[in-house]
């Protein structure tokens, strides 16, 4: 568990896209973001207060979060100056970079000296159990995709926000790097050893109030041959009561697999529901989220109307039109 | 890759069952087993030559394989005396124990001194790639089960043996500890990090002659919520051309999951084939293997005749009646 709130380190991000993780934190957990720390050449701006390490510390920040992709896969000397100074001032560090904080001898040495914790959210730091399949109390919702990167995390975050705005009990459960940094907690599922994947999902979504919903962040796709095992562990470990089907309609092929095509939404529904019912016989598919970023408004509305008619399920782009109708469907479960 | 042939270390195995791994090596790769090493209190016997370390060395043994489960989860002082002497004589060591050789400081020290290799087949020692899904040459067969431990490894080994006896090109591809020790090579799939599972299976079953079959060792079950992600990686990473359905008809519930029931063979067929066709649209279910160890001969024959009629697929217990009919079906693909 990463201590919040954060000072968001944007470093020398060349552009806004490079600061995607920091943007996600600011968008979804603005209370977690005390301010941003930018180096002189930074090309990104979250439109929150620029702060020095001292100012943010004064404002309550506990952890300096690296909210930016690094260039060339290395943690630069210029970054390290800031990271080391932060630790000396009492900050913990958190990062989702492939290049681990814990593999940098100088950072490790200062952490040992200052007592700072280095959070590398790409590696699993818990010994997860093997899944026991025992029915848990509370309810769970999982988005499953026709492909990777079709908006599953966004859908879960948007539904969680809508739920909480309605005064309903909801917790977003992060299963990937960005999600973990946004909330400060979660399971880096793609880094968990095979035998413990489903157990890690059970650990992440424990018994809860009967009217509480876990909004579980999806990963991969049952139809993506590189990552389908991870998705399967979510479907079985998560015991979802409700599934959302997620889709991006303009892909020419599966992400990273030029000779593979996305399944239809009907194919996804049938396979995902059959498998989910193994873990929870009462599971239902309750809605469809479409990532329409590559369609104009008219195309998007027409496409979703067509899907809704064909599938008989509320179909929305939560980014474009909000997650309200998906939450309506969840409330009806 | 573990150097063969082996001297099989049975140690102080209390009974035959405790020497299951050694028995598997002797049954399936007798050429890999130069002899057995038993301590005075050993209650197991593989009915092969008892040898001292020196005698087996003389006979060509390269690796001392721990073919026995250890008591209490520790590698005892009595075992270590033998293991250390073996390394001093030039042996490598191989083990599938949870208690790793590489975690025993005294063994590690002697290995460093003598140049011996310590093979812990429960841990992944290769950096496997992420699966790329590219179609590979050659053919592959995978057994998928209605549950864990229903005879998938046995089925693959028996089919591989029958194939080779017929002069056909076949390689058994091990994905678990016992299989790896039997053949000296393989991937410990349950120990691979989630993102790399399917890639590990691709690595294990590379391009091959057009008429060559990989007989891939199955793991878990698509319907077993604890391990289904591992099975999924085999179904997608393996790109099987042929699936065998494996079943044990007397189970009262899924292994280790008292409230879960096994699916029907028809349910398994439908889900497994749908998923396998994502990776290989030409995949076919070609036969059924039944583990009838808890049925008498008459019950077994009647049960299999009933399944064969219902499913329209050759149905055999390869242990009881050989794998010939499954290989016939494979040859017809």
How are the strands ordered across the major sheet of chain A? 7-8-6-9-10-11
What structural class do you assign from the helix and strand content of chain A? Answer: alpha/beta
Q: Give the mean pLDDT of chain A.
A: 96
What's the helix-strand series of chain A? EHEHEHEHEEHEHHEHEHEHEHH
Question: Could you describe the 3D structure shown?
Answer:
The first copy, chain A, has a six-stranded parallel β-sheet with strand order 7-8-6-9-10-11, sandwiched between helices. In chain A, strands 2-1-3-4-5 form a five-stranded parallel β-sheet, with helices on both faces. Chain A contains twelve helices and eleven strands. In chain A, helix 7 (197-204) crosses helix 8 (228-237) and helix 8 (228-237) packs across helix 9. With 333 residues, chain A is of the alpha/beta class. Helices cover 35% and strands 17% of the residues of chain A. The first copy, chain A, is globular. Chain A starts with 5 loop residues before the first strand and ends with a helix. The first copy, chain A, has helices at residues 20-28, 53-58, 77-88, 105-114, 152-165, 177-183, 197-204, 228-237, 265-279, 297-311, 318-321, 324-331, and strands spanning 6-11, 33-38, 63-66, 92-95, 118-120, 139-145, 169-173, 212-216, 242-247, 284-290, 315-316. In chain A, helix 10 links the parallel strand 10 (284-290) and strand 11 (315-316). Chains A and B meet through helix 7, helix 8 and helix 9 of A and helix 7, helix 8 and helix 9 of B.
């Amino acid at each position: 568990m990463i201590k919040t709130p954060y000072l968001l380190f944007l470093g020398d991000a060349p552009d806004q896209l490079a600061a995607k993780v920091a943007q996600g934190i600011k968008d979804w957990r603005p209370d977690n973001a005390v301010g941003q720390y930018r180096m002189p050449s930074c090309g990104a701006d979250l439109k929150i207060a620029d702060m020095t390490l001292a100012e943010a510390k004064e404002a309550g920040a506990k952890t300096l979060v690296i909210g930016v992709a690094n260039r060339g896969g290395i943690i630069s000397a210029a970054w390290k100056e800031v990271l080391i100074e932060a630790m000396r001032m009492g900050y913990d560090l958190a990062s989702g970079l492939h290049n681990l904080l814990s593999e940098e001898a100088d950072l490790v040495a200062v952490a040992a000296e200052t007592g700072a914790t280095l959070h590398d959210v790409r590696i699993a730091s818990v010994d997860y159990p093997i899944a026991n399949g025992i029915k848990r109390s509370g309810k769970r919702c999982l988005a499953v995709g026709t492909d990777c990167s079709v908006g599953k995390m966004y859908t879960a975050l948007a539904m969680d926000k809508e739920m909480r705005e309605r005064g309903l009990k909801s917790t977003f459960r992060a299963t990937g790097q960005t999600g973990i940094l946004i909330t400060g907690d979660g399971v880096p599922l793609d880094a968990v050893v095979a035998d413990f994947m489903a157990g890690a999902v059970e650990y992440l979504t424990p018994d809860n109030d009967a009217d509480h919903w876990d909004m579980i962040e999806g990963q991969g796709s049952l139809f993506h041959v590189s990552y389908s095992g991870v998705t399967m562990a979510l479907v079985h470990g998560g015991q979802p009561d409700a599934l959302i089907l997620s889709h991006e309609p303009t892909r020419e092929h599966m992400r990273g697999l030029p000779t593979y095509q996305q399944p239809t939404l009907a194919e996804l529904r049938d396979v995902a529901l059959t498998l989910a019912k193994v873990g929870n016989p009462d599971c239902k598919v309750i809605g469809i989220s479409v990532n329409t970023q590559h369609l104009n408004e008219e195309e998007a509305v027409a496409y979703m109307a067509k899907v809704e008619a064909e599938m008989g399920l509320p179909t929305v782009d939560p980014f474009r039109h909000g997650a309200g109708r998906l939450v309506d469907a969840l409330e009806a479960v």
